[in-house]
Write a structure and sequence with these properties.
This protein is α/β, with parallel strands linked by helices. It is built from two helices and five strands; from the N terminus they run E-H-E-H-E-E-E. Helix 2 links the parallel strand 2 and strand 3.
Length: 120
């Protein structure tokens, strides 16, 4: 079965080091909680809000051991008035035998406000 694994985090400022660190931490937790292996991943989409452009947040995902061939793509999130600022979102499309409700979606920092119903 193909499933989506969602994750989001925020940073305090448009700083390359912070964007890389928070993206890496988020991706690694998504991988660990859902027991994801690189060969099970179809794609990883990473979006950032319009206020983040200091670096490509896909970089730390590609640097995870075994993940260099996983297709990762960055894009800009829709700039909705009043939306959460300085936010990085990740959507991993994976092959898994887990049921939809077994997927662990991961939210860090201010992004916990986005989907409190999915926090475990």
């Amino acid at each position: 079965m193909i499933r989506g694994v969602r994750g989001a985090t925020t940073v305090s400022e448009n700083n390359a080091d912070e964007i890389i660190l928070h993206t890496q931490t988020l991706a690694e937790e998504m991988i660990a909680q859902n027991e994801i292996y690189p060969n099970d991943v179809a794609t990883v989409l990473v979006s950032v809000t319009a206020d983040l452009n200091a670096t490509f947040p896909a970089k730390p995902i590609r640097e995870i051991e075994g993940w260099s061939y996983v297709p990762v793509m960055c894009m800009q999130e829709i700039d909705v008035p009043g939306g959460l600022a300085k936010c990085i979102r990740i959507m991993m499309t994976i092959n898994t035998s887990k049921d939809q409700q077994e997927i662990a979606h991961v939210y860090h920092h201010e992004a916990k406000k986005l989907r409190p119903d999915l926090l475990k």
